[in-house]
Amino acid sequence: xxxxxxKFRKKIARIEINGAIxxxxxxxxxxxxxxxxxxxxxxxxxxIDSPGGTVGDSQEIYKALKRLSQxxxxxxxxxxxxxxxxxxxxxxxxxxxxxxxxxTGSIGVILRGNNLERLLEKVGVSFQVIxxxxxxxxxxxxxxxxxxxxxILQQMIDISxxxxxxxxxxxxxxxxxxxxxxxxxxxxxxxxxxxxxxxDRLGTEEDARIWAAELAGLDPKKxxxxxxxxxKPLLNRLLASTLGSTGVLAGLDWCEFELSHNGQPLWxxxx
Length: 271
Fold this sequence. Notes:
This protein is an alpha/beta fold. It contains ten helices and ten strands.
């Protein structure tokens, strides 16, 4: 009997992560990683073009990549931007390539809420809140944070930050102190990332593909990439073909992300 997936053993799987990382990203990537394991691809080229995103989703993708790296050679390729949560996901790849001008870094955590108290006062709107505890309406948009609330949120941010720093230190063989020296939210180029030890080498996505093939013992000249992607509904594809070049869809996606994740700790680069 011929194994139906034998043809994939001489190909490199390819996953592309674009835009802000959220629950949809996580579901798509985890499904693709499962397919890679089932079809026994020898290598994975992970292309990242993302400013980061939600903490939990980034952590789950990273963990899944770590598990897969035990049996599959993984090379990450940082594109135009791979910052914050994009960096965290990249830590799941034992080998990382970036362009010299790639925007990366922004290692840190951000949580932002909106205070519309003064505006609401002007239009004569107020809220009556019945709550089970003093912190149940923390980050409500109709009032300022209290000092105890600020302390609670800061502790949560600090813990999430420590998780980020520790992961980079572990995966890139750096000390926590070394990572903290540049993990202050700043962004840097791919060239600087190599000097800091966050990235292994400079190169294009094609260079990353060649490296992945070599690691898997395949001929780079003959080895093809097989891109695994989530099939979008017909309407989305039609809209993308007509509006994608104008950036309208990208703008709508970003607005949706901002609205749905406002008030959450994020590993996200906010320019």
